[in-house]
Amino acid sequence: WIVLCALWWVRFCRLPGPRRVTRPLARLLGGGALAKVAITAIALNFWTGCDANGRCAFWSAVLYINASLLFDTFTVLVLLLLARGWRVTRRRLSEHDWRLVFGLACWFYIAEAMLVVFRGDVSLLIFFLLAVLLRFSILYSVMSSINSNIRQLFERFHQSRRSRSAVLTNMVAFRLLQY
Hints:
mainly alpha; 5 helices
């Protein structure tokens, strides 16, 4: 992971010139890889401590669970930003879109944390159903945002196609009228 993070940073995050528009997106995705490296190190520390002592440290477990929750929330945040078209189809997001994305990410973090806390208090079937419901609600939000962006891109494409053909028709008519 560390080698992949270093290669990513050198290749995409230090881009000169015309790719400055995509640099924030590359840094965001690179931050996700670095977060995964940190979580792997925390998990290694936790499980090594468990094997060496025969019992697991409470605060290591808390750190590992919270780091995993933050990484999952970060992944959802990146998916939502990409689905809204940030740095893909739009250079900037509106204030409403930023609020929506961060609100959904916070909602996901709280719901995921509640699932972790109440995992032992509910049956396995109910826990599984709630986890699937949470994931599908985020997936629905992502897919509906992608669908909205695709519709907007098709509308722009058809408008540009119509305006381009009208310009070409006017140019041809102007040339014919000159002769």
